[in-house]
C-alpha cells in the first residue's frame, strides 16, 4: 500500500523514495525567513493608551513647519584669528617691517632665486601654480615671501595667509619650522590649527598652517573667506576627496572675491590637468636633494640568490620576512643611519613592530608614524637619537611628502597602500591593498635624500615599477561619494551630478547615482536631493553618514554616551577591517565574550569604559597600542560631541543624565545602530545539500540577500545556540579574488527592534497558508530587507505598526524642531508625551531582549546530539 501511494504521488525515483519535492524544499527553506513577534497583553494595553493620547492630544501639536532660518545653530568659526584694534595696526605694521629687515633669510634653498618671479606672477594673477621639486623650500618660504612683501610696504596687517596641508604632522612640523626660522614661537606671526590641537597667531593677520578638514570647516562658516588674502593648497598631488572638494569650492570663491589669491603647490602634480582646470600661470622650481641610490627587489644583494615568486609581488601582500631581513642587513653592512619603512596601515605597523622586537637586534628605537598616533608622539620621529641607536620609523604614506626627518638615510618601500575602492559591478566599496603610482614611489625614495645621500629599497621588481601608473588615481574616482555629496549640499543647492561635473576630475555617473540613492535610503536626502531634517543635522558631523545618523538619533533616544563611544571606536573603517594575526582574533573573541555573549558592540563598549576608568588596562593583551590610542579616543569623543551640539539636536545646556537616560539599555543601543544603517543579517538554521537537509548550517544572509561569513574575532562566530536569528552589523569587507564577504562586527537583536527601527515601509499581508493556526496571523514585509518576514497576530500587527508610525513622527518632529526659535513655548504636553514614549520604547526593547542579554557560558556550549 505504501509503495502504491509513492508511485501514485510520484514520490519514488528508481528504487529510492522522494522524501521532499522541489516545492517542499523551497517551502521549508523559505519558511526560515519567518520570524514570530508576540506581545504580552499588558504591553499591548500600555501601547494602546499612548496611541490614544497621541491621537487625541499630540498629533495636532506637531504639524507646525519650521524654516531652516529658524534653526539657531551657532557654527564656530574654525579658524578664528585674533584681531587688533585700529589703534594698534600702525604699530603692528611698523614692527613687522622692522622684523622683516632684521630677519635672517634662508639663502641655501633653490626657491630663493624664484622669489621675485613668484611675487610678480602673484601680483598679476589671481591663481598661481608652483611646481617645486622636493627640497626646494616652497612649503616654508612661499608664505614668508608673501607676508614679508606686505610687511615691507607697511601692509603686514592686511595679509592673512592660510596654508592647507594634507596631514596633521605636516602642518605641525611646517608651522614650527617657519616660526623657528623667523625667530619666533608658534602663536606669534605663525600658527597652526589641526584636529585636537591649535595655536592661533596672536597678531591678527598672519600665517596659519592647517589641515584640509579645518579649511573645509572654515569655508562652511565663512563661504567667502572675507578676512583671507591668500590661500595655499600644498601637496595638491595627493588628490584626496578633501583636496578636490577644496579646489572646487575655492574656484567658486574666486569668481566672486577678487581680493583672494590662490597658490597651488606640489612637487609631482599633473601640470596640464591643473593648468586646464584653473587657466593659471605656472612657476617651476628645481629641488635641492642629494643622490639616492634606488634599488628594486631583483637587484638587492640579499635577495639576488633567492628565487623570487613568479607571481606579481604587488598581489602577494606585505613581505614581512623580507623587510626584517633587509633591516638586519642594512644595520649590519651599511653606514649608520635612520630607516624609514613604508607600510599600508596600522595593523602592518603593529605587526612589524612586534616582529622587530622579537629579533636579536639591540639598540633599536622603533617609532610608528600614523594618523592614530597623538600629535605629541608624532613629533618624536623628528628628535635626534644617540650614535649607537638605530631609529626605525614605521609609517604609512603620511611620511611620503611634506616633512623632513633629517637622520633618515634608508627607505624601505613596500610599494603598496591600503585604500577604499569602489566596485562598479557590485555597487559597493571594499578595502584592498593596492600598488601605488610611480610618482608615489619617487616621493618615498626622496625621503632618503633630503639632507644627505641615501638609498631606497623598493620591494617590487623593476618591471613592475615600469608598469605602474605615472600618477595616483584621485580618491574621487575610486571611493564612495556619500560624504562628499553631503559636504556639497552645505555649499551648493545643485544636484549631485551637476556639482560633481565641476570637479577637477569627474566621477562616474553610476557612483554618483548610487551615493544619492544610499543617502535617500538613509533619509538624509529627499527625492529632489535636498537635505532632509535629518540631513540638516548630519551635515554638522565629521563621521560617515551612517555613523553620523547614529549619533544624531542617540540624542533623541537619550543614549548619547554609548553611541558616541562606539562611533569613536568604529570610525576608522580601514584600520578596523584588517587583522594579520589569527591567534589575536581568537584571543580577542575570548576576552570579548567575558564582557558580552551576543554583541561585539556592547563588548567593545564595556572595554572602552574599562580603559577610561583604568580598571583593566590589559584587556586586549596589547596594552601599549590600546593605551596609546586611548588619548585619541577621548579627543575623538569630545570632537564628535561638539559636532552633536553644533547640529542643534540637543542643547549644550542639557544635563548629562537626560542625554543618557537609557544608556544602559543594550537593546536600545543596538536598535539605534540598526536604525542608522539598516544592516541586518538573517541566520538560517538549516540548508539542503546533496538531497539532505543539514542542521546547524548557520548560513548567514544580509538584508540584500548576500551570503556572508563572520570574522573569527566576533562573539557570534561559530555560535550554535541562537537567542534570535537576527543580527545587525556596521562593517563588511569584500575579498574580490575570493569572491567572498566577511562581516567584521555583529550584535544579535530582537525581531521587535527590527520592526520598530527599520527604515523602510512595512507591508502587511495575510499569510498564504490559511490553516486554522495561521488564520489570525499576518506577514510583515519590510522594504529594503529581502531576507526576512515577520509574522504576528492581526491585532498585534495593528498596534505595533501604529506605534511605529507615532515613534518616527515624533523623531521627525525632534529633527525639525530641536533648537528652533519660537517653538519652545506651549510644548510642555508634547515634551511630556515624548518622555513617556521614550520610556515605553526602552521598556519594550528591554523586554524583547531578555534572552539575548541574559546568555551564559553554558548557552555557548554545543548542543548535545
Automatic annotation (TrEMBL):
Gene3D superfamilies: 1.20.120.1080, P-loop containing nucleotide triphosphate hydrolases. GO terms for molecular function: ATP binding; DNA helicase activity; G-quadruplex RNA binding; hydrolase activity; RNA helicase activity. It comes from the Eukaryota. Keywords: ATP-binding, Helicase, Hydrolase, Nucleotide-binding. It holds the Pfam family Helicase_C. Residues 119-287 form the Helicase ATP-binding domain. Residues 325-493 form the Helicase C-terminal domain. SUPFAM superfamilies: P-loop containing nucleoside triphosphate hydrolases (SSF52540). Signal peptide: none annotated. GO terms for cellular component: cytoplasm; nucleus. This is Putative ATP-dependent RNA helicase DHX30. It comes from Habropoda laboriosa.
Amino acid at each position: 500500500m505504501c509503495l502504491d501511494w509513492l508511485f501514485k504521488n510520484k514520490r519514488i525515483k528508481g528504487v529510492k523514495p522522494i522524501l521532499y519535492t522541489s516545492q517542499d524544499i523551497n517551502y521549508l527553506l523559505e519558511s526560515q525567513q519567518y520570524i514570530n513577534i508576540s506581545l504580552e497583553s499588558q504591553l499591548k494595553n500600555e501601547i494602546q493608551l499612548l496611541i490614544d493620547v497621541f491621537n487625541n492630544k499630540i498629533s495636532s501639536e506637531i504639524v507646525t513647519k519650521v524654516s531652516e532660518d529658524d534653526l539657531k545653530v551657532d557654527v564656530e568659526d574654525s579658524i578664528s584669528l585674533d584681531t587688533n584694534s585700529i589703534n594698534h595696526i600702525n604699530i603692528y605694521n611698523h614692527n613687522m617691517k622692522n622684523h622683516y629687515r632684521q630677519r635672517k633669510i634662508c639663502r641655501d634653498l633653490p626657491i630663493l632665486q624664484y622669489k621675485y618671479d613668484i611675487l610678480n606672477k602673484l601680483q598679476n594673477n589671481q591663481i598661481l601654480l608652483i611646481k617645486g621639486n622636493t627640497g626646494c623650500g616652497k612649503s616654508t618660504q612661499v608664505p614668508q615671501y608673501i607676508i614679508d612683501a606686505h610687511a615691507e610696504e607697511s601692509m603686514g596687517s592686511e595679509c592673512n595667509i592660510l596654508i592647507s596641508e594634507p596631514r596633521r604632522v605636516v602642518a605641525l612640523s611646517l608651522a614650527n619650522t617657519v616660526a623657528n626660522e623667523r625667530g619666533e614661537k608658534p602663536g606669534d606671526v605663525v600658527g597652526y590649527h589641526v584636529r585636537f590641537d591649535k595655536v592661533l597667531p596672536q597678531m591678527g593677520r598672519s600665517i596659519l598652517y592647517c589641515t584640509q578638514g579645518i579649511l573645509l570647516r572654515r569655508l562652511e562658516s565663512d563661504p567667502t573667506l572675507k578676512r583671507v588674502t591668500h590661500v595655499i593648497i600644498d601637496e595638491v598631488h595627493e588628490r584626496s576627496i578633501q583636496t578636490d572638494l577644496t579646489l572646487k569650492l575655492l574656484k567658486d570663491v574666486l569668481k566672486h572675491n577678487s581680493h583672494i589669491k590662490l597658490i597651488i603647490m606640489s612637487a609631482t602634480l599633473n601640470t596640464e590637468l591643473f593648468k586646464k582646470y584653473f587657466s593659471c600661470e605656472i612657476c617651476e622650481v628645481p629641488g635641492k636633494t642629494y643622490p639616492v641610490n634606488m634599488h628594486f627587489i631583483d637587484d638587492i644583494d640579499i635577495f639576488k640568490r633567492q628565487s623570487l615568486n613568479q607571481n606579481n609581488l604587488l598581489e602577494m601582500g606585505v613581505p614581512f620576512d623580507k623587510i626584517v631581513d633587509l633591516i638586519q642587513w642594512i644595520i649590519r653592512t651599511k653606514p649608520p643611519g635612520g630607516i624609514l619603512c613604508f607600510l599600508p596601515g596600522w595593523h602592518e605597523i603593529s605587526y612589524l613592530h612586534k616582529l622587530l622586537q622579537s629579533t636579536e637586534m639591540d639598540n633599536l628605537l622603533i617609532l610608528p608614524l600614523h594618523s592614530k598616533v597623538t600629535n605629541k608622539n608624532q613629533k618624536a620621529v623628528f628628535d635626534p637619537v644617540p650614535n649607537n641607536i638605530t631609529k626605525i620609523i614605521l609609517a604609512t604614506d603620511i611620511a611620503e611628502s611634506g616633512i623632513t626627518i633629517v637622520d633618515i638615510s634608508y627607505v624601505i618601500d613596500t610599494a603598496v597602500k591600503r585604500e577604499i575602492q569602489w566596485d562598479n559591478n557590485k555597487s559597493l566599496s571594499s578595502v584592498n591593498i593596492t600598488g601605488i603610482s610611480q610618482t608615489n614611489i619617487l616621493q618615498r625614495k626622496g625621503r632618503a635624500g633630503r639632507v644627505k645621500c641615501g638609498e631606497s629599497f623598493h620591494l617590487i621588481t623593476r618591471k613592475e615599477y615600469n608598469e605602474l601608473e605615472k600618477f595616483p588615481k584621485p580618491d574621487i574616482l575610486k571611493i564612495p561619494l556619500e560624504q562628499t555629496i553631503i559636504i556639497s549640499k552645505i555649499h551648493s543647492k545643485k544636484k549631485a551630478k551637476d556639482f560633481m561635473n565641476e570637479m577637477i576630475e569627474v566621477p562616474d555617473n553610476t557612483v554618483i547615482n548610487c551615493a544619492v540613492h544610499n543617502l535617500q535610503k538613509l533619509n538624509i536626502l529627499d527625492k529632489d536631493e535636498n537635505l532632509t531634517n535629518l540631513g540638516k543635522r548630519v551635515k554638522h558631523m565629521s563621521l560617515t553618514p551612517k555613523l553620523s545618523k547614529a549619533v544624531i538619533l542617540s540624542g533623541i533616544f537619550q543614549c548619547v554616551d554609548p553611541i558616541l563611544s562606539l562611533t569613536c571606536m568604529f570610525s576608522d573603517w580601514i584600520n578596523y577591517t584588517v587583522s594579520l594575526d589569527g591567534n589575536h582574533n581568537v584571543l580577542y573573541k575570548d576576552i570579548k565574550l567575558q564582557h558580552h555573549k551576543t554583541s561585539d558592540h556592547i563588548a567593545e563598549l564595556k572595554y572602552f569604559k574599562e580603559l577610561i576608568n583604568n580598571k583593566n588596562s590589559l584587556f586586549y593583551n596589547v596594552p601599549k597600542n590600546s593605551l596609546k590610542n586611548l588619548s585619541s579616543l577621548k579627543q575623538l569623543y569630545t570632537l564628535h560631541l561638539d559636532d552633536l551640539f553644533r547640529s542643534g539636536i540637543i542643547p549644550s545646556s542639557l544635563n548629562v543624565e537626560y542625554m543618557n537616560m537609557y544608556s544602559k539599555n543594550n537593546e536600545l543601543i543596538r536598535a539605534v545602530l540598526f536604525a542608522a544603517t539598516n544592516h541586518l543579517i538573517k541566520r538560517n538554521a538549516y540548508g539542503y545539500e546533496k538531497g539532505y537537509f543539514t542542521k546547524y548550517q548557520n548560513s548567514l544572509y544580509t538584508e540584500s540577500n548576500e551570503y556572508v561569513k563572520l570574522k573569527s574575532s566576533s562573539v557570534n562566530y561559530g555560535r550554535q545556540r541562537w537567542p534570535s536569528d537576527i543580527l545587525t552589523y556596521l562593517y563588511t569587507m569584500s575579498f574580490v579574488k575570493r569572491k567572498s564577504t566577511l562581516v567584521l562586527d555583529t550584535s544579535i537583536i530582537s525581531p521587535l527592534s527590527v520592526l520598530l527601527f527599520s527604515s523602510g515601509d512595512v507591508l502587511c499581508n495575510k499569510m498564504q497558508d490559511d490553516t486554522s493556526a495561521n488564520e489570525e496571523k499576518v506577514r510583515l514585509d519590510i522594504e529594503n530587507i529581502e531576507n526576512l518576514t515577520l509574522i504576528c497576530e492581526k491585532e498585534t500587527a495593528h498596534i505595533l505598526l501604529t506605534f511605529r508610525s507615532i515613534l518616527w513622527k515624533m523623531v521627525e518632529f525632534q529633527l525639525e524642531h530641536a533648537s528652533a526659535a519660537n517653538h519652545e513655548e506651549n510644548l510642555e504636553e508634547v515634551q511630556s508625551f515624548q518622555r513617556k514614549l521614550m520610556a515605553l520604547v526602552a521598556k519594550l526593547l528591554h523586554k524583547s531582549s531578555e534572552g539575548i542579554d541574559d546568555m551564559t557560558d553554558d548557552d555557548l556550549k554545543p548542543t548535545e546530539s
